[in-house]
Specification:
Blueprint: E1 8-18, E2 21-22, H1 29-32, E3 33-34, E4 37-47, E5 53-60, E6 68-73, E7 81-85, E8 90-97, H2 99-108
Antiparallel strand pairs: 1-4, 2-3, 4-5, 5-8, 6-7
């Protein structure tokens, strides 16, 4: 979306899907399978008109779905399993600069 001041608003809606999978096979489906993952993320980016500055507003796990991202087992053979869990919905604001774009352009000159 373009604005009168020359700014541009870009939005992205992302859906990530991963089926369940076996991360190890010890004949215990309760601990050997990482469950499926379904996650929505939303991103807003506003690029200011004449400036090389932009602001981002990213929302991860938009629907606040509880998910296991991965599982780990111990190295000592005691059968312990730990889960790496997806955090609840989180907001990540950021400010960026177009310095690298400017710098690459200078390298080509």
């Amino acid at each position: 979306m373009h604005f009168d001041d020359g700014g541009i608003l870009t939005t992205h809606l992302k859906f990530s899907i991963r089926d369940s999978y076996y991360f190890r096979v010890y004949d215990n489906p309760a601990t050997d399978v990482v469950p499926e993952l379904r996650q929505w993320d939303l991103d807003f980016k506003y690029q200011f008109g004449a400036q090389k500055v932009h602001v981002d507003f990213l929302i991860k796990n938009l629907t606040n779905t509880a998910s296991v991202l991965s599982r780990y087992t111990d190295n000592f053979g005691v059968g312990a399993v730990s889960n790496f869990l997806r955090a609840a919905a989180t907001v990540h604001p950021a400010v960026g600069s177009g310095f690298l774009t400017w710098f690459r352009g200078r390298l080509r000159e």
